Amino acid sequence: MQGEEFEGAAEALRNGDLDAAGLPPHERLLLEFAGAIARAAFRVTDDQVEGLREAGWTDEQIAEAAYVAALFSLFVRLADTFGIEPPAEYEQAGIPGAVSRES
Fold this sequence. Notes:
By secondary structure, the chain is mainly alpha-helical. It has 5 helices and no strands. Helix 3 (25-40) runs antiparallel to helix 4. The radius of gyration is 15 Å and the shape is globular.
């Protein structure tokens, strides 16, 4: 999702608004899965994984999504531990709404 045609979707995703992003159902399902991993991986169920398969995702794609979600969680936790903040020029409009320090 690059270019002007996707700016609205990208902004919605930065703000954690999957409804406004206008994603196809199978892509939204994958992002919900990644979000579940980021928030509480121990709560991911076999039914969620089976739902992804039924939506057309392969086991390899599901595994890759899990790896990416887990790695991002690791990076965020390390940055929080050491108080690392991104340079302001990366997010000129401020910290995206999807970012929460409460999790």
